[in-house]
Every structure is written in C-alpha cells, then in structure tokens.
Amino acid sequence: MNQIDIKWDQQMRFRLIEIIAQWEGRLTTNHLCDAFRIGRQQASRDINKYLNLTDREQLILDRTIRGYRPADDFKPLFTQGTAHEYLTMLHQQYNLEETFEFFSWGEAQSTVLNVPERVVAPKIVRGLIAAARANLRVDIDYVSLSTPEIRGRIIAPHSLIYDGIRWHVRAYCEEKSEFRDFVLSRFRNEPDLMDKSPKTREHDDDWNHQVKVTITPNPHLSEKQQCVVAEDYAMENHKLTIITRKALVHYCLRRMGVTSDEKLLRAQPEMYQLTVSSQEGTNNSSHSAGFDSYDSSRHSTECMSGHGEVE
Fold first, then answer.
1. For 71, phi and psi rounded to 5 degrees?
2. Are 158 and 246 contained in the same domain?
C-alpha cells in the first residue's frame, strides 16, 4: 500500500477511523458522517476501503456494541497511534497539524520541534473519557514521584487539560475531598467504572471561576530590553492581560516562564523575562489563591489541585 496513491481527503477519513477505533474502542459510520459532513453510504464505503487496505484484520464488526472495535493486534497505518492525536482531536475537533502537507513550499523550509510524548495506554483513555461523559466514579491506580508505589484512587473526571507539555485529567479526588489534576501518563492498569458521582463539573469552583492575570516584563531588565519583551507579546503600556480558568493559571504562567520570585528576577533577568504584576477575579474581586507567589522555576505537577499544590 502506498499512501501517495490515496487522495488526501480519503487519508483524513482513514486517520479518523484509526483514532476513534483505537482510543474509543468503538467506530460507527456516524463518526465519519458528523466529522466530514458525508452521507452514511460514503462513510460505509470508507470503512470498507480501510478494511481492504491490508490482509490483516484491523477492525472487527462487533454486533454487541453496534460498531467496529480494533483487533487485538491493531496497528495504525495513517496515524502515530499516540494518545496526543486523539486528545488533540477532542480539543480541536480535528487536527490541523498536517492540513497543508500536500502544499509545495519550494525552497522555503519550516520545522517544528517534536519531543518524545508521554506514553498513555488506550484502555486508560477510553475509561476516563467514558467516565467523564457519563459523570461516573472511577477506581483506578495512580503513581507519582512523591508516591511511586501504585495506589488505588477513586476519582470522578470531568475534563481533559493539555498544558503545552503533557495531558492531565481534571477530576474530583475522593481521598483528598477536592478537585485535582492527574497526569494521564501516571495512571496504571485498566480503570474500573463505578456508579454516578455526586461531584460534577458544576461543583468545581476553580474550574468555573475566571481570573484575570496581568503580566509585565521583568523590571530588572533594562528599559530597552523591557521594550523588546513587551513587543514580543504585543503588550499595551508594558502590560499583558490574560483571562483563564483559576484552575489553569499555574499552567499558563509556567508555560510562559513567569515568576514572581524577586531573587530570580533580580539575579537572572534574561532567563526570567516575565513577572506577574496583579491578579484578580473577573468580578473585580481579588483572588490571590496562592498565585501571587507563583514560581515557574520550582513547580512540577504530579497531581495538582487548583491552587498548584503538589501532592
């Protein structure tokens, strides 16, 4: 099989077939119909074409689930087979990263730095997604650097988070009696779906509360250096205002390399070019919640609460 001989739009539909089958465990014609606005007959033809691409049985028609499931030895042909592909698709509806791969750039070149992705098992993603959609409690094993031994947790997931580095699931933790963030790659074994949880997304105050954070250049840079940094981010009067969920502030500041540690700002101004000048709730009431002392140089999330507390 030569992918060059397959039309680009057909390859995109094959990619969706693989991603849904591998990471949700159930593929139907509706997935293709909804994603590409095509008819059911066209969707059926696409699935049949995919099934006939190789001699290997990639997908199995399972009457009990009214759809196709991946074979035990399923091997993706058009995708990388990584959780990032599926999770990005959930977030963006479809992945635009390779939309223009057919375009000829001539002599111009462009590259994006790709680093190794953290490994996440499909069975874990499937369970957590199913639980989040149905608001179910989940009994699942978890490890962290602070607690490297496998320990069972009962959580109620409601949202997935990509912080620019790794994926997390936002969930209510029954052990800690609060909503926390769990790194997807730190889950172990297959999750056990349980009954309905009384804790839903609506109960997660840090998730539902919007905060306004004002970022400024490090004042210990020279005036000209501060102007360079301000222009990098199109700041107005050397201020950049960001509005985000309270639960996501620490991720946002960490990704931007922001710190409010005065020693670091003074000692290494070119390393720490940004700092927080103020933070408040969108209702104009102050909500410091520990973010005013945020330091991107010392935070590493294993399992975080909305206040950036490391377990």
1. -65, 160
2. no
Count of domains forming the chain? 3
Q: ∠ CA(205), CA(209), CA(214), 5° rounding?
A: 140
Predicted pLDDT at 2: 62
* Cβ within 8 Å of residue 192, ≥6 positions away: 127, 138, 139, 140
Which tens digits make up the pLDDT trace of 88-125? 887 765 334 444 444 444 555 667 677 788 888 888 99
The C-alpha atoms of residue 299 and residue 302 are separated, in whole angstroms, by 10
Q: CA 106 → CA 1, 103, 109, distances in Å?
A: 27, 9, 8
What is the rounded (10 degree) CA torsion for 9, 10, 12, 18?
170
State the residue range of the domain holding 188: 122-201
Considering Cα of 227, then 232, then 234, then 236, what sign does the dihedral take? negative
Query: Do 9 and 83 fall within a single domain?
Result: yes
151 sits in which H/E element: strand 151-162
Q: Could you give the 3-state DSSP secondary structure of residue 30?
A: helix
The predicted-structure confidence for 282-311, as pLDDT tens digits, reads as follows: 543 333 333 433 444 444 444 455 444 334
> Taking the complete model, does pTM exceed 0.85, yes or no?
no
